[in-house]
Structures are given as structure tokens and as C-alpha cells.
UniProtKB/TrEMBL annotation, chain A:
The lineage of its organism: Bacteria, Pseudomonadati, Pseudomonadota, Alphaproteobacteria, Hyphomicrobiales. Signal peptide: none annotated. Residues 369-420 form the BFD-like [2Fe-2S]-binding domain. This is NAD(P)/FAD-dependent oxidoreductase. GO terms for molecular function: oxidoreductase activity. Pfam families: Fer2_BFD, Pyr_redox_2. The keyword Oxidoreductase applies. InterPro entries: BFD-like_2Fe2S-bd_dom, BFD-like_2Fe2S-bd_dom_sf, FAD/NAD-bd_sf, FAD/NAD-binding_dom, Metab_Enz_Cyan_OpOx_G3PDH, Opine_Oxase_asu/HCN_bsu.
Automatic annotation (TrEMBL), chain B:
This is FAD-binding oxidoreductase. One of its GO terms (cellular component) is cytoplasm. The keyword Endoplasmic reticulum does not apply. Keywords: Oxidoreductase. It comes from Jiella avicenniae. Residues 7-351 form the FAD dependent oxidoreductase domain. One of its GO terms (molecular function) is oxidoreductase activity. The lineage of its organism: Bacteria, Pseudomonadati, Pseudomonadota, Alphaproteobacteria, Hyphomicrobiales.
Length: 460, 373
């Protein structure tokens, strides 16, 4: 089995920057990533996007080209199309690539699997025609496909970014239905002064809102009781706003309630996690160099707490410096980088206060489906709690919630929130699903071939 | 939780602890169950769910039979169907030598007076398992067995016991067990519990309790691994094992296939962690595909392993204590205790309440591990 000083899972900004820095410190480095090309979700397909698409996606997207270029030049080994399906406590990594499974061993493991969109259970969210704002962006980045007349529903910076990108591409959204309550603006304003060092983010935010207004896209603010109507496919979005019930006909709805750390790998490795009230999500517990409670396992990027692409890149470098330092290699100056990371994060308290998930999706109605794989409703989860099921793992065993192919990625946070509310606890005490391998579905035949001798290269 | 003296303190909230607590309560005893985690946290909540008499050690057959009778009316006992499905259990023979061994076993059981295991020839095997591989030559079946949902079952036993007044102290590890006068005192991280009788159903953690009672036995923690596939078209309605390779195979009502059968992962009982070892599980995958070629198209969506206790001879301890009168043991079920839960609970309830049972439990005495003079 091959061994490396550093194995990095994920080739987004954190993974790419970590690999570049690790290589320059002389560490043997392997990057495993599911996508065919580096970039992660934020810089998806950055290497192959043409000038026109880059212009539409904005200046920040173009930043990815610099990071990807440095990564390609770094000398790090890179396996695209690699689906990591298990990591054990000895940091042995099993992944699937090219139709067969391979194993490697890491002295240090860097989890750079970033963020996933928060689950947004609401009536009708499983209808065909309903997707997430992140998925809308991915389609555009990889294929140049834009949805016609999409209604964007929810809250968060990504909602506004997607809106401006759609406007620039000539297909403005039909409407934005924003769930931010009016009172939130006052709460968020308290953080405004502290956010000023990261004024560029604020300026970008205001610019996006102006662009939406200029394009004449209707914005419905403080929307509640949102439902997507339709018999077999989405037909309309209905909601209460401005003191009355409203209805917008559309075949395409994109939902968003912010992004949260992807905990699958850190949960699998039994790293300690904590519930962060401000981000309203579970975060792995990390030290100042982003090392988890499991020695030698680091989390770079949004997986350690949402910080955005710029922070992700810097955190990736910081992690590599720490690994180099521990290995007795010359490492860069970490103090300056830490200061820059702190400055970049100054905008976060404001964003987290303003764009906290809406009350509706944290406590969906009894009839709303929460686990999509196994078709389990919020009401069933509450009933299981009433019977005495103490937490998410018992609810999972009892109802099969979180047992489907997505391994709870789509419902996990929602299930923890619902159980916590039903028991009068916080998600911090309720905790989360235990995550079991394979992290992604795996063919039985591929498992049967595990460890078989690899075919020799013909021209050796 | 009040500190009054209970009639019985049960250590361990798995299927055996909950079942015995229920039976004792049905006999009018006041019972407390002490569980270090939550009820059904380990093997009782996450086993493969087989309700199997087929292929048991000969000594276990009578108690397995008694348990099976309860399984067939489980809803009357616990007000919940436990997801129990009646289904044939079939052990497949891949070779003529395997089939000969199975025939010998059936003959031995008949001589003992048990008729539930029947030999299947080539055609009969296919009548029960149309998807079985061409090379399989026959099998041994117990047609009135089945499978159930482990967590739902253990949870149902807990709820029924609770409705009869049994108190459950969860997240409450028993640290010290001692005899004080005629009572037993159990010191936990959440206070002291006293009882006139004591029952050790501690599973993989039971060895420490036995040691404190002065009768040390070796309980090996093990983690039998299981995997489950995504939904597949219906092709199998029996629970399938294999005579010469470890396998436990069943298709659930929803089409998913659960595969287990004894390949073991890494069990770390001190931290409650069980880790899958895929290089071992690989063989389980191979066996499943060899018996059912349709499994070549199967996709694994999850795997898991619960921690349980295994005795050196592979059969459990079901026994009064040899050192302390009023103390009892039911542990070390060695990866096949789920089916026995209802029956052994009844036996333990009887033993605790009356001091005797007519069940043939002599082969499971804890004294079998006492070093000879």
C-alpha cells in the first residue's frame, strides 16, 4: 500500500492551497477529489471555463484560477474522480476510482471536504423542479445551463450571488422570496462595526442587492409559511409576506438556507464535535492550527466552520505549515497568516446573525417530509421522541431516518434540531447521527475485489 | 431516582436485560435496569435481526425452541410486532460434503426429539431460493423461523417493562458491585442502587461484573460486521446462511439486503467504538455474490458493527452465580443472542422470582470456566 506524509481529501481552495504549501515544504502529498478537475464547488471547472463564463460568474470566481495554477505546478500527486468511501483510525483511506477500489495510508490526513447546503424541509421540497441554489450554480459553472424563471427561496449571501449571476447570464430569477425576519436587521446591525475590517464583503453584498433591484427582480422580504405547490411537479411557490398570502407560479424553485460544514468524515473518525449556536451547525473541535481531537487529522476550509473561499485558502496553507512544523520541516510564518484569517472572518458574526436559518425550516410541520431517502416526516420523528427514543441514533434505528443512500447528509441537521426542540434541549446535547462507511455508495463487486493485485502498466 | 431497595437490579439494558426485567415485573417484582449508555445501544440494537433456531449448538436448541414460541406471539407480550416476519432460515450447501454434514445434523436433532430442521435437496432448495447459484446442491431449513427489527424489538421490551413499573437508569455505568448483608449494592456514576437480587446482562462488559462477584470469566468483545445494500427487486424471501463459509443474508420488506455472518471488525469496548475492517468484509461480499449471482449488481449503502461478548466456547452463560446467592448471569451470547432474548428473559424471570427453572440451563453454567483443582 502506498503511504504519504499528507493525504488531502478535496480539491477546493483549502485542499489545493494545502497541497501547494505541503509540497513546497517537501512533504509527499496526495490529493483525492471526486470531481474530474480541481476547484471544489466554489471554483468548479475553473480551469475549463471560458472568458465569457468567468465574466458572468464574477471576479472572485476568477481567483480560483490562480490557486488551481499553483496547485497544478506544486508537484502534488492528484487523483481526480476519486470517491473516498472509508477512512479508518490508522488513517488508511479506501477510495474508488476508475471502477475499482484502492487504499493509501496517510501520516497526516487533511479533510478539505468543505460545506454542504443546509437541509431545508418544507412542504413540497421533494417535488421535481425544486433544487438548491448551490445546484443551480453548479449547473451553470459546469455546463453553462441556466434555469428560466427560477424563484430563489430562502436566505444567505449565496442567494444574492446566484441572483446576480443569473441576471448577468440574461436569465434573471422570476423572484426572490427572502425569509430574513425584519427584526434580524437590527440584531445584525450590532455586529456592523466589527465587520468593517472585512468591508470588501459588505461592499460586495450591497452591490449584489443593487444589481437585483436594478434588474427589476421582485424581492419579497420577511416571507414565512412557505410551501411549494404542485401535483407531480413544482407549479408554484406560496408564502405569507407583507401581511397577505402570495403565490408565484413557476416550474423551477431553488432553495437555500446557508451552508454548513460537511461532517461526514470527521464523524466517521469519531472526532469531537460541538454545536455552534451562531452558525447553527455542528463543527469539529479544532485547535488554532485546525487539528481535530484525533491526532494527525486536520480540517481545512469550511469543514471547520464556514469562513468562505478566501479563509479556506489561508486555512489550507496554515494546516500544511503546521504539518511541516510537526515533521521538523521548514515552515512558513503562521502568526501573520492567522491574523489575516481573523481579519477575513470579521464579517462572519454579522452574516451569521442576519442569515440564521428561518424558524420554519428548523421546526417543519408534522406532515413535512424530513428524510427524503426513507420518506420520514417531522411528525414521525416527534412521535418516536414521545415514545422515548432519546436521540438521533435511536430515531434512525427506529424509523430508518438517515439510513438511505445519502447517509443522513440531507436530513441529519434537521433531525437533530427537531429532536432537540421536542425534548426541550439544544442540538448540542441531542448530538448527531453516528456515520458509518461507506461514505458514498459502493458496488458489492468492488468491495469483493478490494486488495486484489493492481493490474501492471503495460509499458513499464 | 429514589434510592429504595428494589427486588431486582439488572445490569445492562440490551435485549436480555430488558426481557428479563419485563418477565420479573410480570411476576410482581420491583425492578431497576442500569444501563451505561442507552437501551439497545450496542449489539441488541444493531444486530442482523435473525430469529433463528437453525444451526444452533445442540445445548441451545431447547431454549431456542422456547424462545421461538414467544416470538410467534411477540405482539401479545410487548404490544408491538417488533417487525417480526415469519420466514424460512436456510443453510445452503455448496458441495456434497456440506450436504452430508447437514444431513448428519438433521439426524442428530431428530434423535434428540426435534423435527424443525429439514434437509432440502437440489430442487427443494430452488423452490425456496429461486435466485440461488447453479452450483449449490441443497440445504438445511427451519421453515418456521424468521427475522425482526432489533432496535424496535429491544425498545418495545423496554417500553412494556416501563409500563409495568420497571425503572430504567440510562447513561449510568455500574462501577462497583458488592454484597451488603443480604442485599446487593451497585455503585454507579449516578448514585447507589440496592437490590435483593442481582442480574448481570452486561454483554461485552459483563466480565467485569462477574469478576467483582468473585467468579472471573473471559468475555471477548467482538464486533460482527454487517452491510446493507440499496433497494433491489424482490428475489429472496428466506434468511440464508452457508454451511462452510460465514454468511447471514436476508432481503428486507423494503428490498434492501442485509448481509452479515460473523466476519468481525475491531471492537473497542472502553470507548464504545466499533470499526469496520473492509479487508475482512471483502470475503462476505464474495460469499454473497457466489450464492446469489444477482448480488453482482448490488450497491452497499452502509455497514456497521455492534459490540458484543463472546465466550471461549461460543455459547452463553445463563446461570446462577456460584459465589453469591441471589446473583444471576445471562451474557456472552457470542453473536447469536437476539433470538434467545424473549426465552432467556422468561427463564431468568422465573429463576429470580422462584429460585428455580425447569429449563435445561446446566450446559451454560458459569462454573464451566472455573479452573479445575
Amino acid at each position: 500500500m502506498n503511504g504519504y506524509d499528507v493525504v488531502i481529501v478535496g480539491a477546493g481552495p483549502a485542499g489545493m492551497a494545502c497541497a501547494s504549501e505541503a509540497c513546497s515544504a517537501g512533504l509527499s502529498t496526495l490529493v483525492l477529489d471526486e470531481q474530474p478537475r480541481p476547484g471544489g464547488q466554489i471554483f468548479r471547472d475553473i480551469e475549463v471555463s471560458d472568458r465569457k463564463r468567468r465574466a458572468l460568474l464574477g471576479k472572485d470566481y476568477g481567483e480560483g484560477a490562480r490557486i488551481a495554477g499553483a496547485f497544478r505546478a506544486s508537484g502534488a500527486e492528484y487523483v481526480p474522480g476519486a470517491v473516498v468511501w472509508n477512512i479508518d483510525s490508522a488513517k488508511r483511506i479506501d477510495y474508488s476510482a476508475g471502477g475499482r477500489s484502492h487504499s493509501v495510508e496517510a501520516k497526516s490526513l487533511v479533510v478539505a471536504t468543505g460545506a454542504i447546503e443546509r437541509p431545508t424541509p418544507m412542504p413540497g421540497w421533494t417535488l421535481p423542479g425544486v433544487t438548491t441554489v448551490g445546484a443551480v450554480q453548479i449547473l451553470f459553472k459546469t455546463s453553462g445551463i441556466v434555469f428560466e424563471d427560477v424563484v430563489l427561496v430562502g436566505s444567505g449571501p449565496l442567494l444574492w450571488l446566484a441572483a446576480t449571476q443569473l441576471i448577468a447570464a440574461g436569465s434573471p430569477p422570476k423572484a426572490i422570496v427572502e425569509t430574513v425576519p425584519k427584526a434580524r436587521y437590527r440584531e445584525a446591525a450590532r455586529h456592523f462595526g466589527k465587520a468593517l475590517p472585512a468591508w470588501r464583503y459588505l461592499a460586495k453584498g450591497f452591490a449584489m442587492m443593487r444589481a437585483v433591484k436594478k434588474a427589476g427582480v421582485p424581492v419579497h422580504r420577511d416571507a414565512t409559511d412557505i410551501a411549494i405547490e404542485g401535483e407531480t411537479v413544482a407549479a408554484a411557490v406560496t408564502f405569507a409576506a407583507g401581511g397577505r398570502r402570495q403565490r408565484i407560479e413557476t416550474a423551477h424553485v431553488a432553495l437555500h438556507q446557508g451552508v454548513v460544514p460537511n461532517q461526514q468524515i470527521t464523524r466517521l473518525l469519531n472526532c469531537q464535535h460541538r454545536f455552534d449556536e451562531s452558525q447553527r451547525a455542528f463543527l469539529p473541535v479544532v485547535d488554532e492550527s485546525f487539528e481535530t481531537s484525533v491526532p494527525g487529522v486536520f480540517v481545512a476550509g469550511d469543514g471547520a466552520g464556514i469562513g468562505g473561499a478566501k479563509s479556506a485558502e489561508m486555512r489550507g496553507r496554515l494546516v500544511a505549515m503546521r504539518i511541516a512544523e510537526k515533521a521538523g520541516r521548514p515552515a512558513g510564518e503562521a502568526a501573520k497568516l492567522r491574523a489575516e484569517i481573523a481579519k477575513d472572518a470579521a464579517v462572519r458574526p454579522l452574516l451569521e446573525a442576519l442569515y440564521a436559518p428561518s424558524a420554519d425550516i428548523l421546526s417543519p410541520a408534522d406532515t413535512t417530509m424530513v428524510c427524503r431517502c426513507e420518506e420520514i416526516t417531522a411528525g414521525q420523528i416527534r412521535e418516536a421522541v414521545a415514545l422515548g427514543a432519546p436521540g438521533p441514533n435511536q430515531v434512525k434505528s427506529f424509523l430508518r431516518a438517515g439510513m438511505g443512500p445519502c447517509q443522513g447528509r440531507m436530513c441529519g441537521l434537521a433531525v437533530s434540531e427537531i429532536i432537540a426542540a421536542a425534548k426541550g434541549e439544544t442540538p448540542s446535547t441531542t448530538d448527531y447521527y453516528r456515520i458509518r462507511p461507506p461514505l458514498k455508495p459502493l458496488l458489492l463487486s468492488e468491495l469483493a475485489g478490494l486488495g486484489a493485485e493492481e493490474p501492471r502498466e503495460a509499458a513499464e | 431516582m429514589t434510592n429504595r431497595t428494589a427486588d431486582l437490579v439488572v445490569i445492562g439494558g440490551g435485549i436480555h436485560g430488558c426481557s428479563a426485567a419485563l418477565q420479573a415485573a410480570m411476576r410482581g417484582l420491583e425492578v431497576v435496569v442500569i444501563e451505561k449508555d442507552t437501551v439497545a445501544r450496542h449489539a441488541s440494537g444493531v444486530n442482523a435481526g435473525g430469529v433463528r433456531r437453525l444451526g444452533r449448538a445442540y445445548a441451545e436448541v431447547p431454549i431456542s425452541q422456547r424462545s421461538m414460541e414467544i416470538w410467534h406471539r411477540i405482539e401479545e407480550l410487548v404490544d408491538d410486532d417488533c417487525g417480526f416476519q415469519r420466514a424460512p432460515q436456510i443453510k445452503v450447501a455448496e458441495t456434497d460434503a456440506d450436504l452430508r454434514d447437514l444431513k448428519d445434523r438433521a439426524a442428530h436433532l431428530r434423535a434428540m426429539g426435534f423435527e424443525h430442521e429439514v434437509v432440502l435437496d437440489r430442487d427443494e432448495l430452488r423452490a425456496h431460493l429461486p435466485a440461488v447459484s447453479e452450483h449449490c446442491v441443497g440445504g438445511l431449513a427451519s421453515l418456521e423461523d424468521g427475522f425482526a427489527l432489533p432496535y424496535q424489538t429491544t425498545f418495545a421490551f423496554q417500553r412494556k417493562a416501563r409500563s409495568l413499573g420497571v425503572r430504567f437508569a440510562e447513561n449510568c455505568r455500574a462501577q462497583q458491585v458488592e454484597r451488603i448483608g443480604s442485599d446487593f449494592r451497585v455503585t454507579t456514576e449516578r448514585g447507589v442502587f440496592t437490590g435483593r437480587k442481582l442480574l448481570n446482562c452486561g454483554g461485552a462488559w459483563a466480565g467485569e461484573i462477574a469478576r467483582q462477584l468473585g467468579e472471573p470469566v473471559e468475555v471477548e468483545p467482538t464486533a460482527p460486521m454487517m452491510l446493507v445494500t440499496s433497494r433491489m427487486p424482490r428475489f429472496c424471501s428466506a434468511v440464508v446462511g452457508n454451511q462452510s463459509r460465514p454468511l447471514s443474508f436476508k432481503q428486507m420488506q423494503n428490498g434492501t439486503v442485509v448481509i452479515g455472518g460473523g466476519r468481525r471488525g475491531r471492537a473497542l469496548p472502553d470507548t464504545n467504538v466499533s470499526e469496520l475492517i473492509f479487508s475482512e468484509l471483502r470475503q462476505t461480499a464474495e460469499t454473497a455474490m457466489a450464492i446469489f449471482p444477482i448480488m453482482r449488481q448490488a450497491t452497499i449503502v452502509r455497514s456497521w458493527a455492534g459490540i458484543e461478548g463472546r465466550m471461549p466456547d461460543g455459547i452463553p452463560v445463563i446461570s446462577p452465580s456460584s459465589t453469591e446467592e441471589g446473583a444471576y448471569h445471562a451474557f456472552g451470547f457470542s453473536s447469536h443472542g437476539f433470538q434467545l432474548g424473549p426465552g432467556v428473559g422468561e427463564i431468568m424471570g422465573e429463576l429470580v422470582a422462584t429460585g428455580a427453572t425447569n429449563a435445561p440451563i446446566a450446559p451454560f453454567a458459569i462454573t464451566r470456566f472455573t479452573p479445575g483443582p
